[in-house]
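Students often ask why we bother encoding 3D structure as a string. The short answer is that it lets us treat folding as translation between two languages. Here is a chain of 197 residues written in the first language.
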Amino acid sequence: MLRGLEIRCRGMLEKWQKISSEVFHENKWWKGIHDRFRLPNGKEGDYFYMSKLDPVAIIAVDNDGKILMHKQYRYLFDKESLEVPCGSSKPGQTVEEAALAELAEETGFRPRKIKKIGQFSSANALMTETCNIFLASELEPFQAEKDETEDFESFKLTPEEIDLAIASGEIWCGFTIAAWTLAKPYLKNNPSTPSAS
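And here it is in the second language, the structure alphabet:
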């Protein structure tokens, strides 16, 4: 049951059976995995996917109710992307620690208030990761070491400007769009003082 909406299923969906699993590639960011599986009808097949530590995305709200964002170059698409702060957790970090670190690295701010508000699977047929979304407020300047592969141009956008940028395609980052969708209800009543504690 989800807020009064019941999703009915004809019955329990049958699961696939894992026969074997091997890592065919590994680096400091992710593992490439090859599984052999068996379907409920007995047929067997191959499944290739990535496994990595869970990423985070942060909706950071300044005292004027504007959202901290930045543009950065995305190599695979060879173009700039307007995004909220986001990145992968590092070994030994909790997702909240990762959120604080990414926010500091990418914006130069640290929040006095931060709250996890949701999560989603970014590509549930290709990767095992779950992206964790945080809402941050009461921002204070904080010096942090930046990643040498990242170069940012900073922006502060109103909620209305973010909606327009998504509708126009200027914001095309899936993490940013999903994070913004989850954060908007928290900002609806009073954007300058979101309920993050």
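Translate back mentally: The CA atoms of residues 81 and 95 lie 23 Å apart. Keep this in mind for the problem set.
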